[in-house]
Write a structure and sequence with these properties.
The chain is an alpha+beta fold. Helix content is 35%, strand content 18%.
């Protein structure tokens, strides 16, 4: 018996359809027309991060979250204070079939900082996967290639 090839969404529109179908399955007593349809974009870092997180959330054996490493404004002290997360941490941290993935989002001319480069080296030295993603298509090409290898690694 041959192995069935899994196909993944290649466009943001297909992702929106998958997310909508998952919501409809979660609420079977609600008519599909009444379930809000989400749209995605990859023109901003926030939009691309949301799209990748939505996709990863639908995958079996996967847990992902957005790692916010930005400084926080303290109203009482009237200044920014450093967050508690490691500097350079990737935008998305995930565990995919038991392996750590760190996904850094870069849009336009945005480049990795020295802290991000050191974080990348630490993740890879520990056996994790680190990827820099510039678009949803870029992420999906890498995802499909890694999943096609059969290991997720």
């Amino acid at each position: 018996m041959g192995k069935t090839k899994t196909t993944y969404p290649l466009t943001l529109s297909e992702l929106a359809d998958l997310v909508h179908a998952a919501k409809c399955a979660k609420f079977p007593n609600v008519p599909a027309k009444a379930v809000p349809r989400r749209t995605f974009n990859d023109t901003t870092a926030n939009g691309l991060t949301a799209a990748i997180l939505a996709f990863l959330t639908l995958q079996p054996g996967c847990m992902a979250y957005r790692a916010n490493s930005a400084a926080v404004y303290d109203q009482r002290k009237k200044r920014y204070r450093a967050g508690t997360i490691t500097r350079g941490t990737a935008d998305i941290m995930a565990t995919v079939q038991g392996q750590t993935w760190a996904i850094e989002i870069k849009i336009g001319k945005d480049r990795m900082s020295d802290h991000q480069q050191r974080f990348k080296e630490r993740i890879e030295a520990a056996g994790g996967l680190y990827m820099v993603v510039h678009s949803f298509a870029d992420f999906m090409a890498t995802w499909s290639q890694l999943q096609g290898a059969g290991t997720g690694k």
